[in-house]
Amino acid sequence: MRPLSRLFLAALTFSLVGGASLPATSHSVSVVDPQVETPALYDDEAGGNSNGDDPAIWVHPSKSGKSVVIGTAKEGGLFVYNLDGQQIQHLAAPAAPGPDDEVGRFNNVDVTYDFGGRDLAVVSDRGRDQLRIYAIANGQLTDVTDPAAPFVFNTTQQQVNDAETAYGLATWKDSTGTYALVSRRHRTSIGLVKLLPKPNGKVGYQLVKTLNLPSSFTLPNGQSWTPCDEPGREPQVEGMVVDQEKDVLYAAQEDVGVWRMRADLTGTPVLMDKVREYGVPATYDPVADECTPGTDPGYGGQRLTADAEGLTIYYREDGKGYLLASSQGDNTFAVYRREGSNAYLGQFRIGSYNGIDGVEHSDGSTVLNVPLGDFEEGLFISHDGANTPTAPDRENTNFKFADWSDIADGLDLDVDTDGWDPRD
Known about the structure:
5-stranded mixed sheet; globular; B-propeller_Phytase
C-alpha cells in the first residue's frame, strides 16, 4: 500500500461523495438497436494492426449528411467514415523514429472547431507521447502537426520508450484559447495542453498544467485501498469529456470511477460515482498476469462495472442534458444528469439488430444532439471491442451507430436538437 501522504499530490485536496455504497443490485437495462456499423478492423499484420478504440464526429458546416466519423485504431492510425459507416479515408500512424523506438499508436480523438478558421481533429499518440493534429475540410483530414511538436509528458526519446505516455484526450475551448486535456498511461496524471499556431499552417502545443488524481483511497472502515495492477502501475484515466458550456471535465479513472472537476484543472475534483469493484482487495499474480480479488467489503458503486471507460455528453437547450459513461465490464452505458450532482437516470446497452451485432467491451463513445443525415434526432456512436462474425486468431473491432431517439425512448429521456451546437 502507498502511504496516505501520497494521496494528495501537488498539494491538492480531493472530495469523495456518496460514502459507503450498498453492494451492486440488479437493475433494468434498456436495449437499443444499432442502425449502422463500420467495416471490421483486424489487429494483425494483414489488418495493419488496426484495433479500434475511440470515435469522434465532425459536423459539416452546411450539409449535415456530409458529416463524418473519425475513429482511432491504435497502430492502424485513423479511419474516417461517412454516416452510412463506409470508410472514406485512412491515415497511417507515424513510423518509429528509430529501429528500437515505438511506432505511432493512436488512442483517443476529439474534434474542435474554428481554430484560426479551421476545424481540427486532435489525437493522442500513446506510442510517440505526442498529439497529432489534423485539419478537416469537406470531410477530409490533412496532417498539420508541427514537425517540432514536443513530447507531452516526457523529455527524451528513451523516456518515451521506457515510460508512460499520452493516453486519453478531450478538447476544450475558452476565452484564453483551445486546449486538449490529456491523461497519462499507467499514471493518475491529467495534463492541460494548449494548442498553438505555428508557421506554414502547422499546429503545435504546450503543456501548461498537470493534475494528479489519487492512486490510493481511505475506505469507510479506515483502511487504505489501492486498485490492483502490475507493480509500478497506477490507476489510469482514459475516457474524458469536457462540458463545453460549463467548463467542467469528467474523467473516468478505470478501476475507480468517474471524476468531476474544472476543465482548467483548478479547484477540488469530486468522485461523482464509483465502480462496483471500488474497495475490493486483490492480489496481483505475475504468472497469470491478473489480479485475484478478495472479499468485497461493499463500498463500491452500483452502476459502473470496471473498467469505467468512454464518456460523452448530450446537450439540451435549457442547460441540462445527460452524461453517458461506458461500463465496460458489463457492456452497458450509464446515464447521469449533466447538471447538479449528476443524478443517475438509467442504463442501456447496444444489442444486436438486422445483422449487426451488439456492443461489447466498449472503450470510447460519442454523442451529438444535432441532426446528422438520417439521424434526425441525434447520433450515438460506440466502439465495439468484440465485433462479429469472428475470424480465427484475429482480434476484430469496429464502431456501431445508434439513434439518440431510441436511447431516449428506452429511458424516458429528452430529445432536444436545439441544444448546444459544436459549431456555435
